[in-house]
């Protein structure tokens, strides 16, 4: 009895004491900038720490909150699904962006995640603007903010890549802008958003800014001080057309002729510089953060990914790209302090996936990668299907490690899909380099709570995905250049930093997942979660903020 009284009195006291401290839920940041760095591995924060400036990554970490064990919870870990998962708070299982390109089994053709044949380009005569978010099946944080503010709070998407601008900005964005290379060299959009580029975009495109980046790319600091990465001249880089060795310096003006003219800029860290230039022009041009309704700028730096693919995650080129990105972040924070005001904006920074070491490099140092002989593999698979099922065309399409079965054929031949899946699974598991295999039937009847099954299941969309999912051996990659897409730590472990209004200082090794970002930001803003969210608000940080 005594205990109960005490408990009641504590609770009552607790409420009274807290009542004075409760945050006004409508006292929100004037501007949210959600930064997604393409192909940023978590270890880049530590690896290049000594060379980072005080104002960029270090400031975000020293003043903000650092989730050190943040992971993608699904595969394939590609750009389209990555951005969509960050902003919808759920995985491909629910938002439907299962890859960058996938086989649409209903239309029997391959589709691109942001492609939309029903809209037109704005700002270019090419088809580069025929894009929209129509394939995203859920709302984004940006959509929820628009709904919450009665559409007074703006959303603007900015990136070099169309998908990295369009998917984050959601269905209700005021605008999303992306870069068109080739002979264009400018930022464009689509009729999904508007009929004509705003004056400030036209002014930016005519300013000569883009052209100014066709200059020499050399290392920011003495190359001999870049001891955190491998040697500049090595066997595991692709490099640019028209230059024998992938070594500094790179004369971009000269190289642009053989590398798609203005398309070379995104292939260098200058693509990130250009993205920041445009983002600041957008804040100015759209008056972002100027009134009490929260505006959201979705900002993705994509050149990091292109440099990673080209030169590999261990290259001097990647190191230089991150040191330059750090300077851009410092400039952005300084600009926001001045323009929107310290404490008036909130930032999060993460990645759309990580990236693996170059396969050829790992082999060279004795680490196995499970290289597959694809020609032999395909031949044997076709022969197996012919023998088992009477036709090699029982598999309609193979893409993104998924096999799509031919349902018309199975119905005609009276074949049970689950049995076909199992038989093909057993064949696949006998092949060199194949690590694990999951079937539609298994994913439908099993609830994986951890491990690789959990990751595959979160990436499996009942309507859009294939019928058999394969997982290649850890470390699998190309002979030259890095890639991503796997279920493994090098692709799933990415930075997650929060900074600014509503964010306490701290750090944790407690696991967070990419799908937790949107509900956490929704909690900070006091708005509803995106409609298909399966992530959770990161209470270890949020509870500290309300203490
Ligand atoms: Zn990416
Ligand atoms: Zn190099
Ligand atoms: Zn990539």
State mean pLDDT (0 to 100 scale).
95
At CATH level 2, the architecture of the largest domain is 3-Layer(aba) Sandwich
Helix content estimate: 25-40%
Ions, cofactors and other bound molecules: zinc ion
The coarse silhouette is globular
Give me the CATH superfamily of the largest domain. Alkaline Phosphatase, subunit A
CATH class division of the largest domain: Alpha Beta
Count of strand segments = 19
Q: Helical element count?
A: 22
When the domains are counted, the total is: 2
Beta-strand share of residues:
15-25%
C-alpha Rg (nearest Å): 24 Å
Main sheet attributes: strand count, strand direction, barrel closure: 11 strands, mixed
CATH topology of the largest domain: Alkaline Phosphatase, subunit A
> Runs with pLDDT <50, length 5+?
1-18
Distance between the termini: 30 Å
Overall SS class: alpha/beta
């Amino acid at each position: 009895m005594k205990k109960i009284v005490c408990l009641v009195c504590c609770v009552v006291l607790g409420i009274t004491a807290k009542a004075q401290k409760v945050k006004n839920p409508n006292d929100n940041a004037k501007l949210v900038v959600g930064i997604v760095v393409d192909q940023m591995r978590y270890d880049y924060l530590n690896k290049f720490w000594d060379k980072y400036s005080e104002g960029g990554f270090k400031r975000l970490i020293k003043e903000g909150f650092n989730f050190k064990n943040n992971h993608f919870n699904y595969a394939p870990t590609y750009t389209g699904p990555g951005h969509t998962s960050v902003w919808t708070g759920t995985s491909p299982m629910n938002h439907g962006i299962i890859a960058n390109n996938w086989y649409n089994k209903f239309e029997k053709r391959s589709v691109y995640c942001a492609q939309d044949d029903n809209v037109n380009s704005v700002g270019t005569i090419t088809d580069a603007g025929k894009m929209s978010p129509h394939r995203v099946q859920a709302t984004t944080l940006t959509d929820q903010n628009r709904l919450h503010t009665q559409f007074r709070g703006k959303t603007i998407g900015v990136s070099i890549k169309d998908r990295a601008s369009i998917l984050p900005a959601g269905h209700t964005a005021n605008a999303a802008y992306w870069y068109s290379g080739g002979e264009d060299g400018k930022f464009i959009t689509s009729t999904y958003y508007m009929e004509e580029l705003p004056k400030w975009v036209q002014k930016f495109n005519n300013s000569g800014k883009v052209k100014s980046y066709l200059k020499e790319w050399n290392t920011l600091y003495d190359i001999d001080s870049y001891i955190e990465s491998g040697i500049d001249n090595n066997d595991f880089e692709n490099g640019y057309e028209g230059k024998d060795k992938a070594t500094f310096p790179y004369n971009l003006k000269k190289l642009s002729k053989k590398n798609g003219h203005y398309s070379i800029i995104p292939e260098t860290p200058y693509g990130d510089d250009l993205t920041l230039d445009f983002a600041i022009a957008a804040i100015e041009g759209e008056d972002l953060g100027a009134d009490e309704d929260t505006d959201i700028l979705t900002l993705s730096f994509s050149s990091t990914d292109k440099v990673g693919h080209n030169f590999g995650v261990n290259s001097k080129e990647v190191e230089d790209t991150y040191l330059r990105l750090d300077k851009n972040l410092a400039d952005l924070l300084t600009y926001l302090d001045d323009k929107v005001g310290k404490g008036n904006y909130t930032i999060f920074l993460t990645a759309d996936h990580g990236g693996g070491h170059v396969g050829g490099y790992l082999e060279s140092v004795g680490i196995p990668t499970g290289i597959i002989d694809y020609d032999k593999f395909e031949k044997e698979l076709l022969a197996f299907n012919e023998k088992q099922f009477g036709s090699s065309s029982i598999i309609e399409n193979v893409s993104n490690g998924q096999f799509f079965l031919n349902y018309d054929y199975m119905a005609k031949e009276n074949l049970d899909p689950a049995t076909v899946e199992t038989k093909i699974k057993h064949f696949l598991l006998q092949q060199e380099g194949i690590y694990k295999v999951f079937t539609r039937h298994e994913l439908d009847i099993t609830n994986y709570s951890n491990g690789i099954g959990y990751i595959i299941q979160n990436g499996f969309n009942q309507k859009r995905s294939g019928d058999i999912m394969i997982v290649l051996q850890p470390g699998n990659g190309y002979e030259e250049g890095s890639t991503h897409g796997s279920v493994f730590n090098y692709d799933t472990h990415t930075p997650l930093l929060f900074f600014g209004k509503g964010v306490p200082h701290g750090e944790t090794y407690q696991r967070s997942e990419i799908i937790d970002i949107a509900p956490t930001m929704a909690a900070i803003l006091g708005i509803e979660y995106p409609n298909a969210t399966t992530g959770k608000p990161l209470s270890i940080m949020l509870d500290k903020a309300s203490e």
